[in-house]
Design goal:
Structural class: alpha/beta
Largest sheet: 6 strands, parallel
CATH class: Alpha Beta
Helix content: 10-25%
Number of helices: 4
Number of strands: 8
Oligomer: single chain
Radius of gyration: 16 Å
Shape: globular
Distance between the termini: 12 Å
Strand content: 15-25%
Length: 214
């Protein structure tokens, strides 16, 4: 059951840059829009996030001569996957998807705008220390349980879910309202497999939109 007072739906990076035809396309990524719009009718409160990179961001393979997308480098905060240039500030593909129902979205958090620090989670930059401000906003509003939808399951959605649990929230990931990248890990698994294992270990519930009546 959804508690319309203390539950909130989070829309993670539902942007054309992560959809077919975008710079960092997630397979079938555009399919989340219709599911998210149905879910939005079930909640009184929503927030959204927006990946928002300056040109030359350190997470771009193009910023590292000799590197290619999906290579990894080591930064002071840990391993960093290198991506195609994407979500460039002010570009059409960095906007939230034009068909997304934003009627009940109360706050939009932009992340990844620091040229020297990547940002997956809706709560912290990738150093896991620099806050986005979302936690303070949620606490002041009295929200206790966060439902997550968006892109991509194995990166921004999963990192957001992990941080939310560590901050004391109950967390539910709506599986069919998300799509993942599935970067191969070299051991027969992908980043999707690893994300599911991590979230299960933290007690994150994974449900379908049908379970929520959407």
């Amino acid at each position: 059951m959804i508690d319309r007072a203390t539950d909130i739906l989070g829309l993670v990076d539902v942007q054309p840059t992560f959809m077919p035809g975008g710079e960092l396309a997630v397979a079938d990524g555009d399919a989340v829009v219709a599911v998210v719009n149905r879910l939005a009718l079930r909640f009184d409160h929503l927030f959204a996030t927006q990946d928002w990179h300056p040109p030359g961001h350190l997470s771009f393979a193009s910023a590292h001569p000799g590197s290619k997308p999906f290579d990894t480098i080591t930064k002071p905060y840990g391993e960093q996957v290198l991506w195609p240039d994407h979500a460039i500030q002010g570009s059409p593909n960095a906007a939230l998807h034009r068909d997304l129902d934003l009627t009940r979205v109360e706050v939009i958090i932009r992340k990844g705008f620091d040229r020297n620090l990547d940002s997956y989670s809706t709560f912290f930059e990738n150093d896991r220390c620099t806050p986005t401000g979302l936690d303070g906003w949620l606490r002041q509003r009295g929200f206790q349980r966060i439902f997550l939808a968006g892109l991509a399951t194995d990166f921004c959605v999963a990192w957001s879910a992990e941080d939310a649990v560590r901050l004391g929230y109950q967390v539910v990931v709506i599986e069919d309202a998300c799509r993942g990248i599935g970067v191969p890990l070299g051991d027969g698994r992908t980043t999707m497999d690893m994300a599911r294992e991590r979230l299960a270990g933290l007690g994150v519930r994974i449900v379908s939109s049908a379970k929520l009546g959407a």
